[in-house]
Amino acid sequence: MRAKATDMHSKDCVKVAIRVRPFNKRERDAGSCCIISMVSTSISIQDPRDSQSRRSFCFDYAYWSHSGFTRDHGGLYVPEEPGGRYADQDRVFQDLGEGILDNALQGYNATLLAYGQTGSGKSYSMMGYGPNKGLVPKLCDRLFQAIRDNQENIQCQVFFSMLEIYNEQVVDLLSRGSRAPGGLRVREEQQRGFYVEGLRTIPCESAPQVEQLMEQGTRTRTTAATHMNANSSRSHMLIILQLKQILSKESITKQSNIYLVDLAGSERQRSSGSEADRLKEGTAINLSLTTLGNVISALADMAVGKKVVHIPYRDSVLTKLLQSALGGNSRTVMIATLSPADICYEESLSTLRYAERAKRIQNRAVVNESPTERLIKELKAENARLLQRLNRMGPEGRRAGDESKELRQLLTHNELQIRAIQTLWEQHLQEALKDWEQQYANITQERRMMQMHPYILNINEDAQLSGVVKLFIQEGEWDIGLCDSSPRSICIRGLGIQERHAVFRNERRRVTLTPQTGSKVIINGNAVSQTTELQHLDRLILGSNSTYLFIGYPSERGGDDWSRYDYDYFQSELAAAEGISLGESSAGQCHADPSLLAVFYDYIQLMPMVAEANQMSQELGKGVEFKLEIKNLALSDSKGHDLQKDTVVRVTSTGSRQVWMWSKAKFVNRKFLMEEVYQRYLAKQSQDNREEGVTAVTLPRDKDPFWDPVEPLLLGTAHLWLQSLAFRIPLEEQLEVLGSEGTEEAILQAQLVPCTSTGLPLGEDEILIDPSEALGRRMDFQLVLDQCCGVRWIREARNRGLQIGFRVFDCSQPLYTPAVWHNVNPLLDHRVHFASLHTSQCLLDYLQSSAVVLELWGLQEGCTNLRASLEVMRMTAEGVFIIDDSHPPEAAPVDSELGCSVRALQQDLNELKSVNASLRKENHSLREQLHSAKNGAEGGRVRLARHSSDAEFARALKVFYHSMTSVRGQLQRLRRHRPSEESDLLGLRLFVDEQSLLLRDFSEQLEHSVSTLKQDVAAIVRRKRERSGTWS
């Protein structure tokens, strides 16, 4: 269901449409669920984490393009059944495009805004793909069709402009000359409002001419993105169609501007860390989209009667140019595109809220009269007055003759001005036609070359910009790089591209590529330094991230599907070469864990950005290296569950050896700030004509995106399991501290000591058979950190230090050991006393299922030590920390996917509990018999036997827990055991053999420990039954 197109004209409110796209490959691989439902023009979105949370919105138009479609023989996506709910491109145009066109033909300004996260379908809705043409090309087709249908009554003139806004700079995508430093300027006039000074406007008289200009603009956009190292998903693209209609009979001229705007991706940056970046989000990179949101919010508040002091149109370039579209003289439509996947819930909900605010905006659209036509009318009126004066003049002598001469000169000037205005359109049109013919000739030549020679095809993160640039490799030897002076050179630009980067040789229909010294060349994910023969559909990465697909001779091409070699394919191939990949079945379907998919796609998204950041650091002389790491969040979980992983960037200063760890969001923000610094460096270098040497860019430290204040760094964690405390059994462990990538950072010696309230260790007689006996009673224990050995952090640089941090149960703040410096094997000798005054079931559950996570923090020169805020923690006068206070936290859910060994242990523990319950029942029966017994000596023997059985059971449990310490160590070794990245087939076979031996040792130790415990318990039960049978 949808509103009628004619309804758009009844009001001047902004009309809002929502379109839901199909799942993409990432979402299908992740097994995503659809969280969007649609009824008529109402949209509902379900929170995937809360089945009771559902938000509903209502808009002017709602399009279901998620399912219910098929592809016909011509490649068009159409509904599976006639009248089905699937909304194709034609249906979207009928509702939105026809309304915009009608408004423009009536003389109103009209605007179409496309909003949504990157990859949500904005570009598909606006531009289309293949035969599925989008709103813009369909609008141009219908516009020129309407002009042809009315050409007898109306003379129409159409001008086309295309621009891009990136980092608050305006780029003319149709400019003939070189790009102006800083971009074009936006100025303001009282009549015109805001406009772009020097923006090229090209007259057009056919839809193919407009289509060709759009292709030219896309080519310029692709080249500019490569040269500027820009991310097209962060740029806004504006197409401006100026329509002038001259109605001869009515002597009326209508003039309207059609703005077609593809906004930058609206995705939110999520950070797994809690740190706030000292440098604000990308300064100018997100300014336009942020300001647009502020303008929409202010206008929406104004529409509902709220008092609004200021609408911030002037705060960004985009909102200046869209002032008429938002609250001004225009009829405006916004199409917001959504992903229906549960993994995009936050972005989709944000888009819906944004669109809901936009639909409240009210514009004041009026029919526009052309200032040029008004000038012609004024000149004609003035000419008529001059003719009347000439006719009234009689023979009044010399003075009358002089005045008549002046009037005739003025009349002639006005007629020439009228003629110049009327012929200006024809001149512009002839110039545009010459350009169009030249462009057409170039396209024809390119198509001819494609059928004759091999070439490389650009691959861009934005699918709309892929395949735009084709670089042909003709016979002979061709240099590729920055050099453009040689007649046999292929000029490319981008980060890390050398003056003479590599050499193509095309001989005997074989093409080879030879990298030059110091240049970076990657083929099919592997770096190459020697001459390599290229095969059809080989993937090339030149420099930091200039990606190309090699297309062989026509005889090699066949019917291959090139579309699968998209930008993600290149990065996935590169990640696989680094050992980061997802397994696929023989059918090619990915069966990876969805939690792994998220971090994998984060990783391949950040890979090219890290390469570019490293290249900028090198060229700017910053001495900073960036490296991607996958952080295992299980290392920080008290239950050791394999939680969702995260991607972080390790930043190292090569000079000072200082290290920082940045979250994805922080690195992305800094990357855009680095680009700003790099662009200023290039502009200054070009201005000073420096051709040799690298000049370091100096910035104040507080403004430098490559630098941060030094702070403690989390190096790794170790888990000290607390189960023995529930039975009052002491534990002494030698723990391996593992880093985020599984590397061993240090060995930590730690103890858990059950003790009295004064700190004295408990004896064996105090061991509990059943932890529930401790309920409601006081429990004391000490955590002892003895020594840290083989600290890799300090071994790499002796001017470093370390601290150990930990938090037990409901402690509100983590506690830290004193800082130790310059020692690879530091002695800690740190002891902390904890006490629960009234032990709760919640604490007992925590002790039996959780571990205290010991965090190894690395200190660097200049950073402050970590300290706990003791004033917010409850302590006794003796310095004992109180846990299990009056408001215990809720127990965290236990992961259902435990290992086989843990499940076996849990079963054995349940059996022991049932045995213990039967023993307690027998003890109760014995106590009743002893109470009625007359012989005191016999009663004494029974009490002695009971005490003896309890002591034997406690000793058996102690032996079991000590044996399980070695079992747990063997399990950790199994988890860390991985094949080397350089392993060949023989190395993998050796790894499998070693893994089999480790598994066998682990199973034998586990079976021995459980078997010994069962035998000890069976013997205790048997002896106790024998005694009870004797005495009964």
Summarize the structure.
The protein is 37% helix and 23% strand. The chain has 1032 residues and is α+β, with helices and mostly antiparallel strands.
How helical, in percent, are the residues?
25-40%
Query: Unreliable runs, pLDDT <50, ≥5 residues?
Result: 1-10, 269-275, 585-590, 887-898, 934-946
Question: What structural category do the secondary elements indicate?
Answer: alpha+beta
Rg calculated over all Cα atoms: 38 Å
What is the residue-mean pLDDT, rounded to a whole number?
80
- Total strand count, please? 42
Strand fraction:
15-25%
Main beta sheet: strand number and arrangement? 9 strands, mixed
Shape: elongated
Ends distance: 86 Å
In DSSP terms (H or I, runs of 4 or more residues), the helix count works out at: 20
Which short descriptors sum up this protein?
transport; nucleotide-binding; mitochondrion; alpha+beta; ATP binding; 1032 residues; single chain; 9-stranded mixed beta sheet
How would you explain this protein's 3D organization?
The chain has 1032 residues and is an alpha+beta fold. Helix content is 37%, strand content 23%. The protein has 20 helices and 42 strands. The strands form ten sheets. Strands 1, 5, 8, 11, 12, 15, 16, 17 and 18 form a nine-stranded mixed beta sheet that branches. A six-stranded antiparallel beta sheet has the order 20-19-29-28-25-26, covered by helices on one side. α9 runs antiparallel to α10. The chain is elongated, with a radius of gyration of 38 Å. The N and C termini lie far apart (86 Å). 33% of the residues are buried. InterPro entries: FHA_dom (IPR000253), Kinesin-like_KIF1-typ (IPR022140), Kinesin_motor_dom (IPR001752), Kinesin_motor_dom_sf (IPR036961), P-loop_NTPase (IPR027417), SMAD_FHA_dom_sf (IPR008984). ATP binds at residues 116-123. One of its GO terms (molecular function) is microtubule binding. Residues 902-936 form a coiled coil. Pfam families: FHA (PF00498), KIF1B (PF12423), Kinesin (PF00225).
